[in-house]
Amino acid sequence: MMKLKLYLKTLARPALLLLSAFSILLSGCSPIKPTYKEQDIPYIIKKICKEEYNLEVTTQRTHNTLWIYAPLNKILNKDYGLKEDKIFDEEIMEKLRNIITTIGRVLISSDDTPEFFAFLASDIKLGIDYTMTGSVLDIKKSYADFIPWTEANRRYVIRFKVAPEAVGDTTGFHFLPYDVKMGDFLAEQIAQRVGAHFQDEELKNYFKVDKSDGKFGNGVFSFEYSISQIALPNKPVDIRNAILDIAAYCLKTYDFNNFSGVTLTDLRTLDKFDLNKRALLARPSGL
Asked: Structure pTM?
């Protein structure tokens, strides 16, 4: 189980590939008139998953977040850990796509919606949680072609964790639904983007990402990272500036102003760097 836990830390970026079906569904479609009422959304998602895909899901709604829980007998591919491109079990991939597609269909066809959705799929044999959290407004923007699907995929927050309490949980009793807060959502999204940025095709041969975490509290975004340069890139890359650029881009994209500054901590050197809100938002918008 410890070996599995170590591997799970590296899964966020590959797991985003699962979202392509979601994004394709939402892009290039003609406008859809509202079909469902907001209060019916949890029931409709559950109904479609059962009737069209024979999948049992549990849906719960907090004030601003729709939660969808799917108990699965397995999540990881049999070659997980042996082959780099083998993460999800192929049969399970299809089930996850069907649920994600259903969530998108219902949310873009409703007269009003919650601010966030959170999809939790659990391996109830091994005890693994896979969670995907997203802004419903991002889904609608993608559907309206305001943002490309590649950018839409970067906006979902993906988490994998070992969860022994998920073993045998067919109804979702092992987690407590809560309201997703924008500050927390952005902190995790920025940290995820940082990790993905240094693992993309252009940089992955030059940098190694051991950790990229983000938190929001007392009005401050705090990011801890362990990113080492393992080879000399074609052009110089300043890790700190790259992180600040990503943070500035996200905060301006979501028009989030309810913060006072950011703190960066390089876990390799223990160096800390603070930047106030004005200075951060004055950085160029492009990445």
From this structure: 0.89
